[in-house]
Amino acid sequence: MNSGTKIESLVTTTQKVEHDWTRISDYSQLVEEEIQEYSNIEVTDNLREGGIHAQNAWRFWFEYLSERVWKTSLAEEIMAFCDDIVDPRILSLGCGYGGIELDIAKSLKSTYQITAVDLNPGILDKARAEAQAKNLNIQFLPLDLNFLQIKEKSFDLIIAHASLHHILNLEHVFSQIHMGLKDHGRLIVQDIIGKTQVLFWKQNVDFAIDLVHKMPPKYGAGIELPPYSEPAIQIGMEGIRQEEIEPLLNDYFVPTKMFKYGSFMRMVCTHPDLGKRFDPGIEADKRYLQSLFDLDVQQVEEGRLRATEMLAVYEKKDSVNVTAINTAARARIDAFLASGEVAQSVLSQDKALLAEVSAGSLADVSDEIKRLRFALTERDRTIADLKRIIDKTFASRSWRITAPIRRVSSLLRKVLN
Ligand SMILES: C[S@@+](CC[C@H](N)C(=O)[O-])C[C@H]1O[C@@H](n2cnc3c(N)ncnc32)[C@H](O)[C@@H]1O
Fold first, then answer.
1. Parallel, antiparallel, or unpaired: how do β-strands 148-150 and 181-192 relate?
2. pLDDT digit string (tens) for 285-301?
3. Pocket test for ligand 1, best of 119, 165, 167 (most atoms within 8 A of CB)
4. Which residues line ligand 1 (CB under 6 A)?
5. What is this structure's pTM?
6. Nearest to residue 194, comparing CAs of 204, 184, 185, 186?
């Protein structure tokens, strides 16, 4: 139901970010890749992620979790909370094509006000048109969450569905959510919290590979899951700091509900070939799938495999230890910079060389370019070697190391062009 009131602008952006991780990555390149990625995905008629994410087995996994394990769901948690609030104000972070927000608006019984934001302006158009056509009170705004600013105590509910794992400035975003929620407010998160960049730890991948080999031929024949690979160069912002989401959330919020799930089912259900071999409408497939679901839940419960996703409802902590958060954030950034020391110094050399070139006469420039090309080719090789060594050595935190190297590579590419 539309409240009929004009939505106030309660969210905007700020450059005042205490710990700005975007400065120590090739951020414009990441943004470009991120926008390109989500502009080109398959989308369902109800404006949700399509393709492998719309496969029946994947949908059935969430039905199973909701009905048999959690006894709730994202939508139920949102509705249950909003039912008790008069004229709820809701903010959705990283709304994508907006299908979830449209569904929430259609299900709410009272008046409400929804603000939905996403980095990618081009993907909001269809949802905006539908909201207008159906007279829903939703404002879809293009906005970079890494620089989010929320008006103090302005929202009853903030939702982040599958978006936090794309965020670099987690500390900033969480402090803004904490400030932007009313005292009774809730933050509801459903997201990926697996291994940074690659999602699955080696143990999980090895388990899934073995499982597929043991499947009846009807399902497993000819299917080879890709082996585990170490995190490499960060493309876009997929999984960029995902391992840190949950521990950092705990600095600002207290979970009132927390479900961690998914140690390998994603590899089965969203596999482009394997996932399609399961039809939950067929009794035998349904029973076999359920046995796999039971196995996944058991692996997580018994601590054999780590969960890669979570659904959680949070309330605000009464007091946040800002000093401790700032000290920890500074230490993390320093550790990142220290680990990228070699690459950073290469970057400074590049800058010095470029300054020399621009200061010299035109006649000198051509020789200088030849010399640079040679030097840069050598350096590219060195960087590739460095990257291999660093990736191998610091696998679990590799995006922090690869980010400055990417920056150098990008600078080199610009010079060579
Ligand atoms: C996996 S999609 C999830 C979309 C939607 N919430 C859903 O569940 O269908 C991740 C979304 O995060 C958005 N995103 C990534 N980085 C962002 C940022 N810095 N600020 C705002 N949105 C961002 C992407 O554009 C993309 O739409």
1. unpaired
2. 999 999 999 999 999 99
3. 119
4. 34, 38, 48-49, 94-96, 100, 118-120, 144-146, 161-163, 166-167, 237
5. 0.83
6. 204
